[in-house]
């Protein structure tokens, strides 16, 4: 496989470290061994620093397995047993990625048994051709065929006896001396096991009786599948006529014309068959009387899997879409398997095999590494490797990955619309309603009316109350005590220096049923209360919404419990406008509610574009009297709000502006 482009690392003045993607120098080869015998598989890769590991049937092989020893790129099976047979692959990996080799099949050598012979007596005419059929038993590897003729072994063809590739025996120019006993035998070259036909055949030789002729083998048409570039012999054993009267046709044309085929007695042979040699071959025999007989071979030349257009190295930005192309050929048509760093690529919405390629959408850093296309058609394997490199610092236009969902809510309910987006740099999130940009302010929420006062007869309409909370690439729009004025279309917008993307949602508000208690209406996404996260720097940890209560409810609770309701806490010493590092001690008023948390809200004022950044929340435990704001932008102005909270509600709000020099 061709190596991918190297990666250069600058180590210092005058020194460069070059990282090459791994590639194979040699891959393991299939092996057949007898039970208990040793098997050695070799694998080597470059650069030499690449680490070699092994897979057995697709699973990582434990180096501590009994009967297996692994040393560098060599795997040794000390004693083969059925559990150790199967598919073996080596994996080469380094800091750039990993690749997997073509599989090597390790199998145990076997030799089957002979079946019963169909004919025990065979006849042949003197000075003609004799034929002894043999059904060779299954064998791995292929068995060597031998014959025991009148008690003597024949291991190879002679001038008078031809052991055909099929295992059958052809006797040329039969004489009376050829009569007698013939037994076919099969020899396994790995196990050295020899099996002989139990009964064999007896050949009788007759004197020529007539001018009749026959095709002794094959007796009917044959479908033959052969591997490309292998030697092939199309057998045609005839009696009653000389070999010179046997003709071969390919698709009804002379098979010898303009081809690499040649005659071998009455047979047709080729040393290396080519895919273009596929077709129908007929052995045609005739006599002086004009009688014609024929038998046909339907030859299908199988081709190893091959890749005509392989993978190319690619360098892309985060979030981009990548297309690897892998054009494969072979007979039968190969299957494609995709690997990423030696692991199979499972189809998903982001990793989608398409025709002759693999499409990767929205690439992340985890998608970097080495990709392989492996073509397999059971005849052979082919593979191509390409590297995917991700540029971390390039920009990317925002993409909204979670759009706000349209909602239908009850008048007076609490509503949350959420929106998430990606992009490089991380996009700024903004919300719009039918009036334009929504610029929420915590003071709006802190001064909002309770829901029950809105529901009472004669109550006044609520002013629009919005609150936006945002973190990197994520934003939520909260609407407290929604009214008909809030109904309509809302737009989430994600913006960075490379572009803007928007997504819309529709809010439908239905009237509140007056005979339904307000407490039974479930908000669509209730905010967290102060009993949740009390960490010192819990950014975006809660939405500062009052408990839905009223003076009537408070009085009811006081009468029921017999205890007085504590006053709202107050901040005794507000911080100066340009300094917020220290919060002065505050009092919780009377009762036991002193020391409850303070909520601080801050946002950056961006004078460059005339827009205001999103509000962020910091919650300070009551035991602390200091607030730290970190990671503020240089040369920026920040607006800060603080409010102390207790079970009775919020106290007075402190409002300050903080330049970066004061942080």
Automatic annotation (TrEMBL):
<keyword id="KW-0325">Glycoprotein</keyword>
<feature type="domain" description="Ig-like">
    <location>
        <begin position="132"/>
        <end position="197"/>
    </location>
</feature>
<dbReference type="GO" id="GO:0005886">
    <property type="term" value="C:plasma membrane"/>
</dbReference>
<protein>
    <recommendedName>
        <fullName>Cell adhesion molecule-related/down-regulated by oncogenes</fullName>
    </recommendedName>
</protein>
<keyword id="KW-0393">Immunoglobulin domain</keyword>
<dbReference type="InterPro" id="IPR007110">
    <property type="entry name" value="Ig-like_dom"/>
</dbReference>
<feature type="region of interest" description="Disordered">
    <location>
        <begin position="518"/>
        <end position="570"/>
    </location>
</feature>
<dbReference type="InterPro" id="IPR003599">
    <property type="entry name" value="Ig_sub"/>
</dbReference>
<dbReference type="InterPro" id="IPR036179">
    <property type="entry name" value="Ig-like_dom_sf"/>
</dbReference>
<feature type="domain" description="Ig-like">
    <location>
        <begin position="303"/>
        <end position="389"/>
    </location>
</feature>
<feature type="domain" description="Ig-like">
    <location>
        <begin position="398"/>
        <end position="508"/>
    </location>
</feature>
<keyword id="KW-0472">Membrane</keyword>
<keyword id="KW-0732">Signal</keyword>
<keyword id="KW-1003">Cell membrane</keyword>
<dbReference type="Pfam" id="PF13927">
    <property type="entry name" value="Ig_3"/>
</dbReference>
<dbReference type="InterPro" id="IPR036116">
    <property type="entry name" value="FN3_sf"/>
</dbReference>
<dbReference type="InterPro" id="IPR003598">
    <property type="entry name" value="Ig_sub2"/>
</dbReference>
<dbReference type="InterPro" id="IPR013098">
    <property type="entry name" value="Ig_I-set"/>
</dbReference>
<dbReference type="Pfam" id="PF07679">
    <property type="entry name" value="I-set"/>
</dbReference>
<keyword id="KW-1015">Disulfide bond</keyword>
<keyword id="KW-1133">Transmembrane helix</keyword>
<feature type="domain" description="Ig-like">
    <location>
        <begin position="218"/>
        <end position="296"/>
    </location>
</feature>
<dbReference type="InterPro" id="IPR013783">
    <property type="entry name" value="Ig-like_fold"/>
</dbReference>
<feature type="domain" description="Ig-like">
    <location>
        <begin position="22"/>
        <end position="107"/>
    </location>
</feature>
<keyword id="KW-0677">Repeat</keyword>
<keyword id="KW-0812">Transmembrane</keyword>
<dbReference type="InterPro" id="IPR003961">
    <property type="entry name" value="FN3_dom"/>
</dbReference>
<feature type="compositionally biased region" description="Polar residues">
    <location>
        <begin position="551"/>
        <end position="562"/>
    </location>
</feature>
């Amino acid at each position: 496989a061709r190596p991918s482009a190297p990666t250069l690392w600058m180590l210092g003045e005058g020194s460069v470290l070059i990282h090459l993607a791994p590639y194979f120098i040699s891959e393991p080869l299939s092996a057949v061994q007898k039970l208990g015998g040793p098997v050695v598989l070799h694998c080597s890769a470059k650069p030499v620093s690449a680490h070699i590991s092994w897979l057995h049937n697709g699973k990582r092989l434990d180096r501590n397995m009994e009967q297996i020893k692994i040393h560098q790129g060599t795997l040794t099976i000390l004693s083969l047993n059925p559990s150790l047979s199967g598919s073996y692959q080596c994996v080469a990996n380094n800091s750039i990625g990993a690749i997997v080799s073509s599989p090597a099949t390790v199998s145990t050598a076997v030799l089957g048994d002979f079946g019963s012979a169909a004919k025990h007596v065979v006849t042949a005419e003197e000075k003609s051709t004799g034929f002894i059929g043999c059904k060779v038993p299954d064998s791995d590897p292929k068995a060597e065929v031998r014959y025991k003729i009148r008690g003597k072994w024949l291991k190879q063809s002679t001038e008078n006896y031809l052991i055909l590739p099929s295992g059958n025996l052809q006797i040329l120019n039969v004489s009376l001396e050829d009569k007698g006993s013939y037994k076919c035998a099969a020899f396994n070259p790995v196990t050295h096991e020899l099996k002989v036909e139990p009964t064999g055949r007896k050949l009788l030789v007759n004197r020529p009786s007539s001018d009749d002729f026959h095709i002794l083998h094959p007796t009917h048409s044959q479908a033959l599948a052969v591997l490309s570039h292998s030697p092939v012999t199309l057998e045609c054993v005839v009696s009653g006529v000389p070999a010179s009267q046997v003709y071969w046709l390919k698709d009804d044309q002379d098979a010898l014309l303009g081809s690499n085929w040649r005659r071998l007695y009455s047979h047709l042979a080729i040393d290396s068959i080519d895919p273009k040699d596929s077709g129908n071959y007929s052995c045609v025999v005739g006599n002086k009387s004009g009688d014609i007989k024929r038998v046909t071979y339907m030859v299908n030349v199988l081709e190893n899997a091959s890749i005509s257009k392989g993978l190319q190295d690619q360098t892309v930005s985060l979030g981009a879409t990548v297309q690897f192309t892998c054009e494969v050929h072979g007979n039968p048509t190969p299957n494609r398997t995709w690997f990423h760093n030696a692991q199979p690529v499972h189809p998903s919405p982001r990793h989608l095999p398409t025709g002759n390629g693999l499409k990767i959408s929205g690439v992340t850093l985890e998608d970097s590494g080495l990709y392989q296309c492996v073509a397999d058609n059971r005849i052979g394997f082919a593979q191509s490797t390409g590297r995917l490199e991700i540029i971390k610092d390039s920009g990317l236009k925002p993409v909204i990955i979670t759009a706000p969902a349209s909602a239908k809510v009850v008048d007076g309910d609490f509503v949350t619309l959420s929106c998430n987006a990606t992009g490089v740099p991380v996009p700024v999130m903004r919300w719009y309603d039918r009036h334009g940009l929504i610029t929420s302010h915590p003071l709006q929420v802190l001064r909002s009316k309770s829901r029950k006062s809105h529901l009472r007869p004669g109550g006044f309409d609520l002013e629009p109350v919005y609150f936006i909370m945002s973190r990197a690439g994520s934003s939520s729009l909260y609407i407290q005590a929604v009214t008909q004025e809030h109904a309509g279309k809302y737009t989430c917008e994600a913006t960075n220096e490379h572009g803007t993307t928007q997504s819309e949602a529709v809010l439908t508000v239905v009237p509140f049923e007056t005979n339904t208690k307000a407490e039974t209406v479930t908000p669509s996404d209730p905010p967290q209360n102060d009993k949740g996260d009390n960490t010192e720097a819990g950014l975006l940890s809660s939405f500062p919404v009052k408990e839905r209560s009223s003076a009537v409810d408070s009085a009811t609770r006081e009468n029921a419990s017999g205890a007085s309701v504590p006053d709202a806490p107050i901040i005794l010493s507000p911080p100066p406008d340009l300094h917020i590092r220290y919060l002065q001690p505050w009092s919780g008023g009377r009762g036991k509610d002193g020391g409850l948390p303070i909520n601080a809200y801050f946002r950056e004022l961006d004078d460059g574009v005339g827009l205001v950044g999103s509000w962020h929340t910091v919650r300070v435990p009551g035991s602390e009297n200091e607030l730290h704001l970190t990671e503020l932008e240089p040369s920026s102005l920040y607006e800060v709000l603080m409010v102390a909270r207790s079970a009775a509600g919020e106290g007075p709000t402190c409002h300050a502006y903080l330049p970066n020099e004061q942080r």
